Amino acid sequence: MSIDNGNRVLPFEQVVNFRDMGGYPAIGGRKVKYGLFYRSGELHKMTTADYELLDSLGIKTIFDYRDDREAEAKPDPQFENVHNERIPAKGDIGFKMPTSSLKDMDNRAFLQTVNAEVFTKLYAHLPLNNPSYKRLMDIIQDPENLGLLHHCAVGKDRTGVGGALILLALGVDEKNVMQDYLITNDCMKPVQDAMIPVLSQHLNEEQLQHFGDIMSAKERYLQATFDVIKECYGDYNIFFEKEFGLTKEKRKALQDYCLE
Fold it and tell me: How many structural domains is the chain composed of?
């Protein structure tokens, strides 16, 4: 991928896909400031060095999109002077997110039925009438809440849509929003490469294909988010105002603070 990730992906030891969302060109020839918005996977395995790195970033809010079951099994760490908040983003879409032990029986059943088509539908479902993203949009309008780290399990799907909404609200175009989303594939490749030899001993070929589908950031997934917003609202201005109460004035205030 041609995009330069050097200033964006942070060297955490035990947190996958942790990166700064700054630097993207936005409305009015400005750019998103670094140090305001971060995205990542789950945080429960953080090392001492990871704690020190996160503590150095000036993060004031950690926002978790995971379901109750996921968060109870792998709780977020608590940091002094950091507000933790969790509102599940997935909602009731007919399946549970897989556990980290993808070779167990429940996950084999999951991988038999959940594929790229199902995940495309998920991305079309997530941005509409979603309490998690409604709260996210409230949080980012108060500068006292930033820097913000938002995350799910691997920082791809629920975080991918949340990240897209943040950047779109700041006036970043779809091309650059998609670039930010696809960085996940670079970040997750070492994880996938390590898991495939183990999983191949437990999963059949179809299940392995589905594993690749759900572990990858595919353009068709996030495009489904773009498409459903425009189908329902016509354009992003109307979407942000009607869905989140982000009026033209509120959105300009957000942009004025978050862009340089």
Answer: 1
